[in-house]
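Translate structure to sequence.
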């Protein structure tokens, strides 16, 4: 599917075919595409917890105010981020470039993130947002649909997935075979209200 069609046709789907199972290769393809998403300094701070087991999906649905797309989807991806990835062997983020520019980049990224708790959180959300959109467009182009989600109990889900102390959960994306078409789009705000030339 053409990328423009995938963007136009992606919708947040609330009802999936509960019996559909995605193959291992399909799930792997989505994740391999997700990690091609950009991250600042290439820190690749996203972490993906994937869930396909029905009993865990049902539990997650309970923790998501009973939203049915969570128990019906074939695949749930909980997008998390490691807040300290900037400081965990950063040389591997630039393994393919010569040593001198690599060292300069590492010094610069450490200076950028060290002790900047808010920036580390912002970066987590930025990276996961990018990866979520890649996942949803990849799924669409593979014949699947998706729903991005924040409507769940973050604390309980964190406990359920053993979220490490220096990680956070950004959001969840569910993927599956659409069972019901979505309602028409809610209403788009015109570009004239959203876009400013050069300054507000
Ligand atoms: C960060 C984020 C969180 C969302 N959380 C939920 C959710 O918990 N449940 C839900 O049904 N939809 C959720 N949505 C879907 C939005 O309601 C949807 O994207 C919006 O209404 C636009 O519709 P569309 O995605 O079909 O274009 C979420 C979307 C985003 C981007």
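Result:
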């Amino acid at each position: 599917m053409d990328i423009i069609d995938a963007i136009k046709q992606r919708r947040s789907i609330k009802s999936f075919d509960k019996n559909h199972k995605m193959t291992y290769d399909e799930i792997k393809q989505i994740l391999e595409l997700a990690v091609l998403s950009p991250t600042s300094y290439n820190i690749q701070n996203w972490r993906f917890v994937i869930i396909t087991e029905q009993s865990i999906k049902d539990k997650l649905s309970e923790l998501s105010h009973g939203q049915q797309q969570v128990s019906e989807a074939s695949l749930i991806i909980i997008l998390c981020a490691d807040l300290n990835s900037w400081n965990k062997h950063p040389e591997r983020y630039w393994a393919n470039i010569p040593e001198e520019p690599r060292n300069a980049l590492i010094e610069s990224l450490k200076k950028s993130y060290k002790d900047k708790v808010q920036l580390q959180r912002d970066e987590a959300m930025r990276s996961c947002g990018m990866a979520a959109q890649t996942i949803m467009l990849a799924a669409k182009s593979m014949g699947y649909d998706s729903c991005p989600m924040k409507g769940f109990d973050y604390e309980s889900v964190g406990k359920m997935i053993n979220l490490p102390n220096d990680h956070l959960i950004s959001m969840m994306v569910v993927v599956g075979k659409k069972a019901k078409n979505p309602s028409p789009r809610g209403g788009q705000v015109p570009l004239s209200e959203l876009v400013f030339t050069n300054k507000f």
